[in-house]
Design a protein that fits this description.
The protein is of the alpha+beta class. It is built from 21 helices and ten strands. Helix content is about 60%, strand content about 10%. Strands 2, 3, 4, 5, 6 and 7 form a six-stranded antiparallel sheet that branches. The protein has a four-stranded antiparallel sheet with strand order 1-10-9-8.
């Protein structure tokens, strides 16, 4: 089966190279009607990639340890759900899922009205660029990152999955991120194609749905990743500014910036080159995220390590960046309008986009700083979370303030609704005053929280005060901003005002944390074929009233010498109790850590809204026109 799957992937690579040549010849000879063959050819390539992926998935389901990738991530005790997720648990399988998602997305795009709306010349360039991208990924899968390597001799059992991956987040977080990365290949290739063909903004409308869907997948994956980190790693936070976490945030920043400049581009026929370059670089940064995970260039808890693909990936990134920049620079456009004044909706959208770009640049610079610092120091210097918090959180606060004011401004200049702008300003001042009275006085947290309230106020009032805000697409946009305001509120309080205590306790003993009393009721052990479990039952009360019980665990999985924490929480819309069992003490007690995290669940509530509201913004049917 391994050889069959490998040959199928090899044929997919050869077929992609042939189709790229065919498309180039058809374009150069002026016979662009032959692009139909490229379209049908890609569907055949997609079928081959699906077949190879199906073989790997079947090997996982049947636990065929003759596949080294199955042996590396599965064992006889692994639950069925996690056995399936082993498809993307390793470097090889996740890259295959990347390619599979990319092929399927483009295969679906061929049948959409948006694809048919693209000018013929733009379509030709689109296929040329895409076949280059796909050929590179297939080359990696057949040369450097082969998912079909055989384990010789066939082992009787597998190594099993890393315990940190045995979490519901594993089912959704990696595939959503990869779908987001892969989906951006469509607007990314279309942007380069439009630059080469001189198409001003039609490509934005044609790829609009795929851009939004890719952003939804990427956003959902990032938020789920934060929740997974919060629930699995036991350190009490949700974002550690780890290099691999940052790898997904960087293209999210540029992709979100594009969504705002694209509004100006589509409505006002402006920023054509900026939009092309921004989207092309967003896809390049998705590939850069793959480079960070697989190159070993920076150390990360989540990275796969160097797998022989660092140089090929870096070379491809540089090549794709050069193609993007040169294509945009040589693009000849006509009838481009100038932007309105700075105090206008156009001006604020552009400022918001530049803020997001600056945020992505800072995150990228900080992530690569250990590599950059090697040029003058033998000891590379990494940047900790304090650097990112000092630089990035003010930019996030600025964003919510911009979104609080932007809807009340006119497109060209001036204020179009003074009532709404005054209400948003009043909401900011009142919220800030209330928070100060409650004792929350840290400047950055105060501005971020009050800005979040103002952003939510604007999102709600705009629907009532602005007639053009009541359509489906506008409702979706304002719902996204409502979710952003909720997340800003949660971030502003949950981080700076978190209270935590570590204690060694015995059954029956109590301790205080953040106004709550925690009592260890029981400490006991359980075991199964796959793990041994140490379980603590902690009773939480406030003002003498029991409000619930949390049951954190310490687990020792079969085949692993290191124990792993299983976090337990007592959720709430105000405070959330977060408990971790650190281990046993020498005298038979329990070492526990308990945090009180204020408003942390508003991050997840806002994140859900942020992930689902954009579905309202999608274009349905064949309607054309400005978006």
């Amino acid at each position: 089966m391994q050889m069959t799957a490998y040959i199928v992937m090899l044929f997919a690579l050869l077929g992609t190279l042939f189709l790229g040549g065919w498309t180039g010849v058809a374009f150069l000879t002026g016979r662009e009607e032959r692009l139909k063959f490229s379209e049908y050819g890609h569907l055949a390539i997609t079928g081959l990639v699906c077949a190879a992926s199906g073989i790997l998935l079947w090997a996982l389901v049947t636990k065929n340890y003759a596949f080294y990738s199955v042996f590396s991530h599965v064992d006889s005790t692994l639950e069925f759900a996690y056995t399936l997720t082993a498809f993307w648990a390793g470097s090889e399988g996740s890259l295959l899922f990347w390619e599979l998602s990319m092929a399927l997305c483009v295969g679906i795009f061929v049948f959409t009205p948006g694809y048919k709306e693209l000018p013929q010349r733009t379509r030709a360039y689109f296929w040329l660029v895409f076949f280059v991208v796909q050929a590179f990924f297939l080359l990696m899968l057949t040369c450097w990152v082969n998912p079909f390597v055989q384990a010789v001799p066939t082992p009787p059992d597998g190594k099993g999955m890393n315990p940190l991956l045995r979490n519901p987040g594993m089912i959704f977080h990696p595939p959503l991120l990869l779908l987001g990365y892969a989906g951006f290949v469509i607007p990314g290739c279309a942007a380069i194609a439009a630059a080469l063909s001189g198409d001003g903004s039609q490509w934005i409308r044609s790829t609009r749905n795929f851009t939004i869907l890719s952003w939804i997948f990427l956003t959902s994956g990032i938020i789920l990743g934060g929740w997974w980190s919060y629930m699995e790693l036991g350190w009490g936070g949700y974002w550690a500014w780890d290099p691999v976490e940052n790898a997904s945030l960087i293209p999210w920043c540029t992709g979100t910036a594009f969504l705002h400049t694209a509004i100006v581009g589509s409505r006002r026929n402006a920023l054509a080159r900026s939009n092309m370059l921004l989207m092309a670089l967003t896809f390049v940064l998705c590939v850069f995220g793959t480079y960070l995970v697989r190159s070993g260039v920076v150390e990360s808890l989540h990275a796969f390590g160097e797998g022989g693909v660092a140089r090929p990936l870096l070379s491809f990134i540089l090549f794709l960046t050069a193609v993007s920049v040169v294509s945009v620079l040589q693009c000849k456009l006509t009838d481009q309008r100038s932007l309105g004044g700075l105090i206008s909706r156009e001006g604020f959208l552009v400022i918001a986009a530049w803020t997001l770009i600056a945020l992505g640049f800072v995150v990228g610079l900080g992530t690569m700083w250990p590599v950059i610092s090697k040029t003058w120091s033998s000891k590379p210097m990494g940047l900790d979370a304090h650097f990112y918090n000092r630089v990035c959180l003010p930019l996030f606060a600025l964003l919510v303030l911009l979104f609080s004011a932007c809807p009340w401004l006119g497109w060209k200049e001036g204020v179009r609704d003074k009532r709404g702008l005054m209400a948003a300003g009043a909401a900011f001042l009142i919220a800030a005053g209330v928070f100060v009275a409650m004792g929350y006085t840290l400047p950055l947290a105060l501005v971020g929280a009050a800005g979040g309230v103002a952003c939510m106020t604007t999102a709600v009032l705009a629907v009532g005060l602005l007639p053009d805000a009541r359509g489906r697409k506008s409702l979706g946009s304002y719902a996204v901003h409502l979710g952003l305001g909720l997340m800003a509120l949660g971030v502003a309080f949950s981080g700076p005002y978190q209270v935590g205590v570590e204690r060694d306790v015995h059954p029956g003993e109590t301790f205080e944390v953040g106004g709550y009393t925690v009592k260890l009721n029981e400490l006991h052990e359980k075991s199964s074929a796959s793990m041994a479990r140490l379980i603590a039952e902690l009773e939480v009360s406030k003002n003498g009233k029991v409000i619930g019980t949390v049951v954190p665990e310490r687990r020792l999985y079969r085949g692993y010498e290191q124990p792993f924490a299983e976090v337990a929480v007592l959720p709430g819309l105000g405070d959330e109790i977060f408990a971790v069992l650190l281990g046993l003490t020498e005298d038979g007690g329990a070492s526990v850590k308990v945090n009180v995290n204020p408003l942390v669940n508003w991050i997840w509530i806002g994140g859900i809204l942020l992930s689902f509201a954009p579905f309202l913004v999608l274009r349905y049917g064949r309607g054309k026109g400005k978006e």
